[in-house]
Amino acid sequence: MPLVKIEILKGKTAAYKKALLDSIHSALVQVLKIPENDRIQRLYELESSHFEFSSPKTSQLTLLEITLFPGRKRETKKNLYESIVQNLGKNPGIQPDDIFIILLEPPLENWGIRGGKPADEIQFSYKIDL
Asked: What is residue 3's three-state secondary structure?
């Protein structure tokens, strides 16, 4: 159940934003083996006066925060980073150096889901410790 937060500069087309969302979700499904319909993504478009960065970053700078259940191995996380960067390079065409990814892994007891139950009391249909 990854929660994805994406921050980009305002002004991208609807097709660009859709490709961005789809490319990230595809990597999550492929690498983390989450169900295809397990999708919660938030896209924040920032005015240039609210999004400051230095050269050599470009107007395609993309910041990703992915909050997910803890338990994935280092190699799985590395594969996720690579898959996201590769997918975003293909579509919508973001250069690797313009992509920043951070994973946040709060303990399962800190997730209130499925009617307010702590996630450590839930039996999931997919593996977390990949």
From this structure: strand
